[in-house]
Prior knowledge:
The chain is mainly alpha-helical. The chain has five helices and two strands, in the order αβααβαα. Keywords: ATP-binding, Helicase, Hydrolase, Nucleotide-binding.
Amino acid sequence: MKHRILTAHSFREQILILDEADRILDVGFKKALNAIISQLPKCRQTLLFSAIQTNYVQDLAKLSLKDPEYLSVHEESECEAATPNHLQQTANDCSSRAKIRYVMQFHEGTS
């Protein structure tokens, strides 16, 4: 089976990840974010994460998402897509050089 090798350069251009989306526009990054998004290819995957849904997040979604799919996390009894009670979070402390490798390995493991 032939595998596609994903370089760090092509990976950055194909996926835009916006974390703490509720804070990005709140602290005045709208102009900078518009400049960044305008330089990215139109055909890309955008992941937008926010702990809360605000007007700022909806504005950000309009700027960067095409046909967005929303996932809301509630108590397990309320929603099939809820955060499991046994969820474990981990953090990896790594150098700047290693960050791309870690993200690519994670992405390959979930594809």
